[in-house]
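Checklist before submission:
- one chain only
- standard amino acids only
- sequence pasted in full

Submission:
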Amino acid sequence: MPPSSSERSAYQYDAPGRRAAMVNALNKVLEVFCSHFDDTFDKVLASALRIIAEAATVDQIHVDLVDPVNAACLKQLYRWDSSDGVARVNSTASFPRSPVLTEWFGDLMQGRYINRQVSDAPKPEAAFMNDIGLKSIFIVPIFTGGALWGCVIFKIIANDLPFYEDCADLTLSFARLCANAVIRDEMAREIAEQSEITRVMFDSAPIGLAMYDENCNLVDCNSSVLEMLDVPKERYLSSFFELAPKYQPGGFKSYDLATKNMKRALDGEKLVMEWMHRSPSGELIPTEVTFTRMFHNEKPIGLCYIYDLRTIKRMERNILKLKSESEKIYYDPLTGIFNRRFFDENLDRVIKTLSRSGGTLSLMMIDIDAFKSYNDTYGHAAGDNCLKIVAESLSKSITRADDFAVRYGGDEFAIVLPNTDEDGTRLLAEKMLENVRSCAMPHEKNNSAGIVTISIGGTTGRVKTTYRADDYIKRADELLYESKQIGRNRATFGRL
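Returned file contents:
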């Protein structure tokens, strides 16, 4: 249980002791997550959260997910309470809707943690905390794949005790350690629920784990290591160096290289190296080994995570093949530039990315002027050639890696310009207008110039989480229509 009121008061004035207790608790939590293989995950998590709560003197700890329906809302995944020490599975909202929560959420999206004590908080925050019965709160954002996955929330309810900034780094470590454990458990659950084919595919990519003591003697390993080398456990643990060539590919002796890195990991370093195993049949097996450590009964234990590079290299070859095949569906066969499918999928991705950073997006919609008349006059073969020349001209006008041009459909093109303001977009539009005119393709039915020209509608806006691709497309199309109405061969711009 968390400390009593008198214990909290003494704890308030003992900064070195407070930090030492947090560091000790962090080591214990690592031990819990690495050693309790027989318990259910809920029990393991409850044990870890109890250790954290005692060290951080908190009453409740939540592990929350971002609501997939409402991105500005958090829903409890696990909730630990000091009253019973159980990690319950929940799906309720963590907080009522409030402007304070919206402001906090903005900070979390930027990767900043929240540390508030009701006695020192601004009036709106203090009122919000009083309404939900809190004295202090510490919220840590957790990101996966560049997106906000959820938060770990520490609550003090009974006493007005702050979360001290001198231990903020350790509190962040607690939160991320627990969140990573939850994420790994979620992944394991998802894998267990997948089809039999997916399960077999996962089992065919073994990841080995071996443990060694402070004297660099192997003490345990999992079945994946044994399957990788096709040896019994006793043979692997007792004759590890016999299962390797005398020298590694870099020229180092196997024994010297392994023991050197094992000792460095025991001293606190995290190391990655390539290691060549040899099976009893003589097959050389390339692997990548990650060395790290944990503590058990206050003694360091070395951990080796072993990846079979044979499988990974096969997977890499398959991925490259799939990538090559998939890229074919993203290109327009006539012009060779990206097609509508690529535009639809990647514009959504760009908007989602820029909405997190508050970046700016510009979009241009482009039409070839009087293209139907061009086809009628010069024939469809000439029309196809015209499309190719215009597409090439537009593509060459773009120089930044993040920008892209697509054939939107028929004689219409689109240009996507992440992190480009209106001035930059105007300059690029003028460049595109001139580049197409300089091709000097005759077009007697184009009354605006007598040659092939284009019209452009461009819009710019700072991306918000509520924006969608259609918002940009609709606005750019409206401005393209204006360009055509007032004479063609020009660009019209407007803010989103």
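Reviewer check: The longest strand covers residues 284-296.
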